[in-house]
Amino acid sequence: MDNLKIYSQKFSNLNVSNSKKRGTALHKPILILSVIDLISRDVINDNEIRVSDELIETFEKYWQIIGSHSYTGGLHYPFFHLQSEGFWHLELKPDFNGLQPKTTNRLKKSVEYAYLDVELFELLQDDLSRKELLDALIGAFFPDIDNQIDSILQVNQNFEDEEISKSSIINQPKYTLKKTIIRNAFFRKAIVSVYGCQCAFCGLIVNKTINQNIVDGAHIKPFSQFYDSRIHNGIALCKNHHWAFDRGWFSVDDKYKIIVSKELEEVSPHAKPIKDFHGEKLILPKIEKYFPDIEALEWHRHNIFQP
Ligand SMILES: [Zn+2]
Q1: Residues 170 and 299 placed together within one structural domain of the fold
Q2: How far is the CA of 244 from the centre of ligand 1 (A)?
Q3: What does the pLDDT read at residue 174?
Q4: pTM here?
């Protein structure tokens, strides 16, 4: 088994059962999200994860957005307990008394730093494997249960509110942009969930094992231009059709009918050619309020589609 698969599995199977109080089960996933966030922002750039102000602040921010509101999060708890997962190790201070730190300040005094398995740290340097690991983590602690979709959407809404309020205070485009790595992972999760893990174009579903998924959450209006990760700006598409949609090989009209570029030349001896989907209806979510936005589709037809 390759390392990416091993760590995706470990992320999906975090042991949160020893959480003593209700609502603490997200401690470990949120610590991992925070670390990935800081790695992607280049705040953590070597494999020595210290109890820094940035880590404390990031953990607390995620706890506020996705943690339990009935229980205050504390970095000290998962920073210590993540050791039991086998990929997170602690370098303790020489005078550490052996007692589990009960506060983040105590934690600071007890550990020099944490470090990840070298193989995992390397995977997290790479955009694609980082994305897959994030999807595994987020997929696992927000399982595909219909009534949980709203909570995922709520998470994304909270990210947006937070970013709007942040950008109105100080202009930090770089920070906001980098932070979207986590937000977009929630976007993908929400889109794939409302479409039942099915490609809206061709209907492909592949049963996932460890939250790896052949179907993606695609932005209709590109994220790099509009920063819009609301559910209405998304369609679930398999990798091929995501790629084709981003390049304007096909688009969707305001009756949700597929329109395919006339310039396409393809040979597809074993699968239905893209051209044959012209005029077919996009496969939509069961719930109408999650349908793609007509205005976003219109924008895609005028700006991306190559008729
Ligand atoms: Zn497809």
Answers
A1: yes
A2: 10
A3: 44
A4: 0.79
